[in-house]
Structure formats: C-alpha cells, structure tokens
C-alpha cells in the first residue's frame, strides 16, 4: 500500500487532502516523493515562519533530543523557564503557561478569564467573541468560534458565550455587561478571510474591558511570531491585551502553544487549576527559544514588513490585471489575502499542480502566509505561477 491508500484505509477522514506526499523541505521549498519542487507560500498554515527545517532550529532540536526530551511539570525545566523569560522580555507578558496547540491555549485563556470573573462574582463567566472568528476545534474553542460550520452537530456549546460583530463597537456594547469575564479577538481574523481589526475597534475593546473589569484576550495564534511585521500583532496598535494566546509558529513546526498574561491576569491560574502533560517540555521549548531569538531581531522584522509590502504590491498588480477575479487585497506584513469575486479552491488546485502552495480561506480568499524568510525572487516566482493560473482560469 502506498501513502495515499494507507491514509484512505487507516486515517480518519477529517481532512480533504491533495494527493501530494511531501518528503523533504528546505527554506520556502517542499519536495514531493517524485522530487518535484513546490514554492510554499502557506508555511504549513503560518507555522514554519523560519522556513522548513531551519538549520538553527533543527540543530537545536536534534541536540535537545539527545539530551532530554521530556520531564513532567512536577520539576523545573530550564528551557521552559528560558522561553517564558524570552517571551515576556519581548512582549507585554509577565507570566506564561505552555501547552501544545492554539485551541488548547484558547481553552486555557477562557478558563483563566472565567476563574478571574467568578472569583469576583459567580455570575461573571460570560465570554464575548466575534462572528467569523476562528479559535480552534476543541469544545470550548468551537463554542467561541463565530462560524456555524465548526460547531453544528456537536451538541450544546459552552454556556455563556455571546457573539458580536467584528469591527463594530456598538455591537460589542450590546452584549457586554458586568457578567462578562472575557473578550476574545483575533487582531486579524485568519480563517475568517484575512480581515484586519481596525485600530479604533481594538482601542475600544481595551476601554470596554477595563470598564467592566473583563480579561481582554488577543488570539495571536496565527498573527504572532513576526507574521505581521511585528513580533506580535498587538504591537501595531499601541495597546496591550491582558492575555495573548500563541501556537503555530512558536515552534516552527514542533507542537507548542502558550498563554501569555500580565497584571490582573498573570496570577489567576494557581497550582492545580490548570495543567498539561506535554506543556513546555524541553524539546518544544528549546525549539521556541531558537525561534523567538531569530524572529525578535529588529532587522528581521523590518525585512518582514518590507517583503510584505512587496508581496502586497505584486498582488495589487495582479488585481489590476485580473480585476474580474480579484476584488481587493488586504492584510498586514506577510499575512495577506486576495479577496476574489469567485470561489477560489480551483485556483489553489491549479497553482499546486504548477508547483505553488497557497490556500483558500472563507471560500473566496486566497491566503498568502509564506515563510518569513522568503526572498523577493521567490515572491516573483510565486506571482509568475499565480499569473499563469489566473490567465488559464480567466480564459
Ligand atoms: C487564530 C487561531 N486560533 C486558534 C487556532 C487553532 O490552533 P490549533 O489548530 O493549533 O489548535 C487557529 C488555527 O488555525 C487560528 O488560526
């Protein structure tokens, strides 16, 4: 049996997969089992921000794997403590909890907010989330995800979740109250179609959260780790959340998630209130240390911003040429979406056949989240393929 047959026979069919089997990766390039090369402008969905198998990260993981992979959180873990310090020194954070994925980080953040709220008032447990948001696939995460398709058919969702309109403060004011424990928002809605939050909206959320003494949570699972041209997206806005959740690119492919908190949120989770067996283990946190060290460099982040502008300009040019397909381009840094006038899954498929990996989110948005180490030449290469695809699609 080959990999396709084995997957068909033995792996739960939770994904519609393309019939491609990647066996090797280097930088922005992936190679399949026939040695065909592909330019990866998706980076495992905003995970491999340093490119595939970045030598510094790979060497560190190999070294760590030979030294110590896992010990339980009953003991002190040097790499965990060091990564927590690095994250705090490079952000608003004062304390970090480590877990293994984005959904899990959001679960923990909700628990944190509810614990904070209910210690003041047993009725203060409501969470305000936003329509078109995406926060992951666990029960609490789908409960706060504002897209029906993710929670239909899974029985009752978490009680006490209220949804408001993204980028609409009036709609937030309608649902918040003294019972609100937390407000969770993505600075740029990723799965919702690369929709950036307005600055005034986030400033307004900060003000509302302060007024009602709620925990403001930024889900930076997709926007974090340099993706938008700052180490964390909140740094564009001149405000700080109380809690930020991270995952995806924090380990450049090694599973890791984190809850970062400050002030009133920093010491809510006391011994016994929250835990994770694998959370913050030596292997994952060693990867995280190398990632943060590289990405937090100011010059590196400036390059992300510059290359983001370059890619946006190239996409704008494509929009000019194929205005019957592309409506507009939006996003920040190297997290960009080309909003199409048509469903775009066929475009993604054709691009893949020609050796370019992108994806389609929200049905009609072509998503570009390449490794942050992508060069202008590589961007040109990707745009050339996309142009061919759009030409074929238009004719
Ligand atoms: C903003 C956001 N939050 C949470 C998640 C869930 O992360 P994970 O798949 O690691 O659970 C995602 C994944 O796409 C995401 O984009």
UniProtKB/TrEMBL annotation:
PROSITE patterns named among the record's database cross-references: AA_TRANSFER_CLASS_3
Cofactor(s) it depends on: pyridoxal 5'-phosphate
Binding site for pyridoxal 5'-phosphate: 102-103, 134, 219-222, 277
Modified residues (N6-(pyridoxal phosphate)lysine): 248
Additional information: May also have succinyldiaminopimelate aminotransferase activity, thus carrying out the corresponding step in lysine biosynthesis.
HAMAP family, sorted: ArgD_aminotrans_3
Descriptive protein name: Acetylornithine aminotransferase
Gene from which this protein is expressed: argD
């Amino acid at each position: 049996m080959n990999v396709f047959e084995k997957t068909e026979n033995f792996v739960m069919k939770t994904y519609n997969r393309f019939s491609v089997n990647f066996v090797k990766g280097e930088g922005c390039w992936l190679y399949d089992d026939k040695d065909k090369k592909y330019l990866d402008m998706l980076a495992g969905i905003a995970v491999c921000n340093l490119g595939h198998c970045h030598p510094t990260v790979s060497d560190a993981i190999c070294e760590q794997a030979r030294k110590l992979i896992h010990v339980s959180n009953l003991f002190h873990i040097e790499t965990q403590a060091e990564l927590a310090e690095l994250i705090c020194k490079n952000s608003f954070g004062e304390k970090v909890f480590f877990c293994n994925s984005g959904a899990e980080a959001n679960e923990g953040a909700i628990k944190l907010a509810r614990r904070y709220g209910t210690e003041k008032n047993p009725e203060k447990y409501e969470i305000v989330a936003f329509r078109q948001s995406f926060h992951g696939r666990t029960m609490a995460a789908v409960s706060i995800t504002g897209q029906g398709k993710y929670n239909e058919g899974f029985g009752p969702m978490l009680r006490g979740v209220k949804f408001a309109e993204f980028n609409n403060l009036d709609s937030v004011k309608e649902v918040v109250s003294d019972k609100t424990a937390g407000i969770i928002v993505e600075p740029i809605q990723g799965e919702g179609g690369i929709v950036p939050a307005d600055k005034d909206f986030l400033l307004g959320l900060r003000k509302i959260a302060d007024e009602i003494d709620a925990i403001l949570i930024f889900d930076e699972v997709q926007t974090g780790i340099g993706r938008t041209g700052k180490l964390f997206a909140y740094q564009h806005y001149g405000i700080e959340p109380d809690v930020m959740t991270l995952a995806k690119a924090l380990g450049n492919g090694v599973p890791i998630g984190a809850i970062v908190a400050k002030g009133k949120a920093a010491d809510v989770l006391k011994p016994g209130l929250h835990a994770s067996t694998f959370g913050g283990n030596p292997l994952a946190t060693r990867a995280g240390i190398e990632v943060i060290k590289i990405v937090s460099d100011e010059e590196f982040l400036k390059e992300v911003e510059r290359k983001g502008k370059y890619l946006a300009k190239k996409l704008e040019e494509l929009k000019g040429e194929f205005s019957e397909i592309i409506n507009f381009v939006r996003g920040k840094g190297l997290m960009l979406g080309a909003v199409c006038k048509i469903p775009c899954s066929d475009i993604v498929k054709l691009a893949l056949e020609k050796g370019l990996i992108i994806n389609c989110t929200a049905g009609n948005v072509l998503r570009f989240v390449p490794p942050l180490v992508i060069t202008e030449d590589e961007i040109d290469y990707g745009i050339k393929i996309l142009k061919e695809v759009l030409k074929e699609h238009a004719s």
